[in-house]
Amino acid sequence: MPNTLVVQAHQATRLITLHRPHALNALTTELLGELADELQRCADDPDVRAVVITGSRKAFAAGADLNEMAERDLVGMLDDPRQGYWQRITQFPKPLIAAVNGYALGGGCELAMHADILIAGEDAQFGQPEINLGIMPGAGGTQRLLRAVGKSLAMQMVLAGESISARRALDAGLVSEITQPELTVERALQIAQRIAAKAPLAVRLAKEALLKAQDLDLASGLRFERHAFTLLAGTADRDEGIRAFQEKRQADFKGC
Ligand code: DAK
């Protein structure tokens, strides 16, 4: 049983809630390890089709745990197990939706940005305040933030340590929707369940192809897309999807 997470099943989706309320869900090594393990379980379980990750109303996560960080020097950082945990979290192959209320700062903002879809409560605040601590983002904050919000705003957030509101995050493209805070998780679960009803192989390959758009040049990305599209042409779910359309019924996808 994890110590720092609460995991709930909602049909073919899982809701993972970060649970260190006394420290605004600050990310300890233990929490990151438990999250990496839980996501691994979700990845291995064919009945889990999508995952929602959330925190509390006050904080999604206020960053890396600074008390733990205070104990790490350069040597400690070099073989920091968190690096491996982040790696595993970022490689989660199924759709991951972040439902963000309150503070998403530092590693908390980086964790939210690992999600494929971000839904934010009106009171959410996104920021990379590491510069105030004499450091800089170390878990993707410079790279993913710039890709998400563009150069000028990313520079302002990282160099001046300024946070942005949910509204600004929506305008900048960091999140796709904002909701009333009490509805954020419900909305994220609704999207997860909608995804969970689609053909799993198509969802997986579509996610992979979309992520390639950030890493590859256009020609390579298009090559990957064509290859993935062709692979799906050989699946039973593709036949089922088209047959269901013709027979005017709901498709029943099996994941093969
Ligand atoms: N770590 C530990 N405890 C924290 C915390 C944190 N990041 N943030 C908040 N807390 C604790 C507070 O100490 C306080 O505990 P008590 O004093 O009650 O025991 C409790 O949570 C409530 O916080 P506040 O009293 O401060 O609440 P306020 O509403 O007044 O302020 C705040 C909320 C979020 C504005 C403030 O707590 C704050 O500024 N927190 C620190 C935010 C921050 O600087 N975050 C960035 C941390 S650096 C890497 C991976 C990740 C990272 C780096 C490398 N690798 C894999 C290489 C990430 C780095 C970071 O995130």
Features:
Lyase 2-enoyl-coa Hydratase, Chain  A, domain 2; 49% helix; single chain; 16% strand; 2-enoyl-CoA Hydratase, Chain A, domain 1; six-stranded mixed beta sheet; 256 residues; four-stranded mixed beta sheet; alpha/beta; globular; binds 4-(N,N-dimethylamino)cinnamoyl-COA
Structure characterization notes:
With 256 residues, the chain is α/β, with parallel strands linked by helices. It folds into two domains: 5-196, 2-enoyl-CoA Hydratase, Chain A, domain 1; 200-246, Lyase 2-enoyl-coa Hydratase, Chain  A, domain 2 (Orthogonal Bundle), CATH 1.10.12.10. Helices cover 49% and strands 16% of the residues. The chain has helices spanning 29-44, 66-70, 74-78, 81-90, 107-114, 141-149, 151-159, 166-172, 184-196, 200-215, 218-233, 236-246; strands at residues 5-10, 13-18, 50-54, 59-61, 96-100, 103-105, 117-121, 125-127, 164-165, 177-179. Strands 1-2-3-5-7-10 form a six-stranded mixed β-sheet, sandwiched between helices. β1 (5-10) and β2 form a beta hairpin. α1 runs parallel beside α4. The chain is globular. The model has no long low-confidence stretch (mean pLDDT 96).
Please tell me the total number of domains: 2
Main β-sheet: number of strands, strand sense, barrel status?
A: 6 strands, mixed
Principal-axes shape call: globular
The counted number of beta strands is 10
Helix content: 40-55%
Low-pLDDT stretches are none
Mean pLDDT metric: 96
Q: Return the CATH topology of the largest domain.
A: 2-enoyl-CoA Hydratase, Chain A, domain 1
What's the arrangement of strands in the largest beta sheet? 1-2-3-5-7-10
Structural class category:
alpha/beta
Terminus-to-terminus distance: 32 Å
Q: CATH superfamily of the largest domain, please?
A: 2-enoyl-CoA Hydratase, Chain A, domain 1
